[in-house]
Design brief:
13-stranded antiparallel sheet; alpha+beta; 13 strands; 2 domains; globular; outer membrane lipoprotein receptor (LolB), chain A; single chain; 263 residues
Length: 263
């Protein structure tokens, strides 16, 4: 009589699997792949603090710059149209010149220099209202009417500083997820897309529940940041197009008597 096939006990099968590294390798690979698909990128293995230090070092080398500043904010629950502003910025003394280049504020200008004009902003609207020039505190309700932040918070330096404060706070608390989303070309520049996530229940303690950053691959400067709330709504969107880090700006660029200005 032919003998019946001998079946191995379930426990013995599990022992053989446990001693065989191949299934474990396959499972690990599947887990990593699933994580990448779920996040839309690969979780950065390098130290976020190291990334911050490199970004700060890149900005430290900047003295002044010009750019087209793109700004969009959600005010009182409503996402406002994007504003496009020609920007000149100098680090020392901190100086800003801004001219709106698209409607509805086209032609409006603003000047601010630390230590000048009693630290007031000099500004005027575009069109026929340009003849009315006012000196206002950066936090004056007139300037803050459709803005989440004072104009003195404008610039790639403030952008980096805000990211750094929130990242280091989240790193210390152990709640930061830092994800590399790969490459994206914006404003004609190759950028690395970085995603900062804070758990839903902790998000109120930070600038955002989620921040998406575009960092210029070549210069390491942050070119754009998009800020989302806990419900996934875009709250703030800032970008710097045609960024010229070699601009040699002088006092004349921040002088209301400049003949190119309408103050």
């Amino acid at each position: 009589m032919a003998s019946e096939p001998v079946s191995l006990p379930d426990s013995l099968d599990m022992v053989n699997i446990a001693n065989n590294p191949l299934p474990r390798i396959i499972c690990s690979a599947l887990f990593v792949l699933t994580t990448m698909v779920a996040h839309g990128g690969a979780i950065i293995e390098s130290d976020p603090e190291k990334w911050l230090t490199e970004a700060e070092a890149a900005y430290d080398r900047v003295e002044s710059y010009t750019a087209i500043f793109h700004k969009q904010q959600r005010i009182s629950g409503k996402l406002l149209p994007e504003e496009n502003i020609f920007l000149k910025c100098r680090k020392k003394p901190f100086s800003l010149y801004m001219k709106w280049v698209t409607k509805p504020f086209k032609g409006s200008e603003l000047l601010y220099v630390v230590g000048w004009n009693e630290d007031l902003v000099r500004a005027h609207r575009g069109g026929i209202l340009r003849i009315i020039v006012r000196n206002l505190d950066p936090n004056d309700p007139v300037l803050m009417e459709n803005d989440l932040r004072p104009v003195t918070s404008t610039g790639i330096g403030y952008l980096l500083e805000t990211v750094a404060i929130n990242m280091r706070k989240a790193i210390k608390a152990g709640v930061l997820t830092f994800t590399d989303r790969g490459k994206e070309n914006i404003y004609g520049k190759d950028t690395q897309v970085l995603d900062l996530d804070i758990p839903y229940e902790k998000a109120n303690d930070y600038l955002c529940a989620r921040c998406v950053i575009n960092q210029d691959v070549e210069s390491k400067i942050l070119l754009r940041i998009r800020v989302y709330d806990r419900d996934g709504r875009l709250v703030e969107n800032y970008g710097y197009e045609n960024l010229n880090l070699d601009a040699r700006l002088s006092d004349a660029d921040f002088d209301p008597k400049n003949l190119d200005y309408d103050f």
